[in-house]
Amino acid sequence: MTSFGLLSAVFLLVLQAALVAISAFDPSPLQDFCVAVDEPDSAVFVNGKFCKDPKLVKAEDFFFRGLNIPGNTMNKQGSNVTLVNVDKLPGLNTLGISLARIDYAPYGLNPPHTHPRATEILVVIEGTLLVGFVTSNPNKLFTKVLHKGDVFVFPIGLIHFQFNVGHGPALAFAGLSSQNPGVITIANAVFGSDPPISLDVLMKAFQVDKKVIDALQMQFKA
């Protein structure tokens, strides 16, 4: 093999390894399960959780009850997310998946947010939702009105939202490709951080005066 051919082969191997690393958001498990426990007797630690002794694992470790119960939408946004992640369902540990129920009051909004560790797939159970996500620069918006039975995907890390445009309540379920997807609600993070982001930074970023920033921060103050 020529030196050029060898370099090409090495480059392809490195590229393949990088693609594999990028695609594996949650590490792949090397065992059937790793039920999460908070106070272990052993020191086996996987994906931020300790593993329960397999001999002590029960069916209840893989069970969650309550997604039939509507969430309370009596809030400013008119929406409620009931997330079933590894903290609610210990058997999810290392499995790279979680689930959410999302309830919307009439004209309720699940505000713009991101999941830093997960792609989300949403299915509408009842109602009509306007959904969308925004790409990284140059920030193209992809949006669609969804009806009962429709499915939409929000790619990992991108800002997305759902808005109930119907006259009645709406309901959706979402699957997420991480046992602990995380959520960053954009307005809360920018205007409600603790400690707050510098006024000078926000004024320059949004090209508005201090009064506007003060008013926004008051809205999201913890």
Fold and architecture overview:
The protein has 222 residues and is of the alpha+beta class. 21% of the residues lie in helices and 29% in strands. It contains four helices and 13 strands. A hairpin with a 6-residue loop joins strand 8 (129-134) and strand 9. The longest helix is centred in the first third of the chain and has 21 residues, at 3-23. 23% of the residues are buried. The model is unreliable at 11-15 and 17-24 (pLDDT under 50).
Features:
alpha+beta, 2 domains, 4 helices, 29% strand, 5-stranded antiparallel beta sheet, metal-binding, 222 residues, secreted, Jelly Rolls
SSE diagram, text form:
Blueprint: H1 3-23, E1 36-37, E2 45-46, E3 49-51, E4 79-84, E5 98-104, E6 109-114, E7 120-126, E8 129-134, E9 141-146, E10 151-154, E11 159-164, E12 170-176, E13 184-185, H2 186-191, H3 199-206, H4 210-220
Antiparallel strand pairs: 1-3, 2-3, 4-5, 5-12, 6-11, 6-13, 7-10, 7-12, 8-9, 8-11
Main location: secreted
Pfam families: Cupin_1
Domain Cupin type-1: 65-214
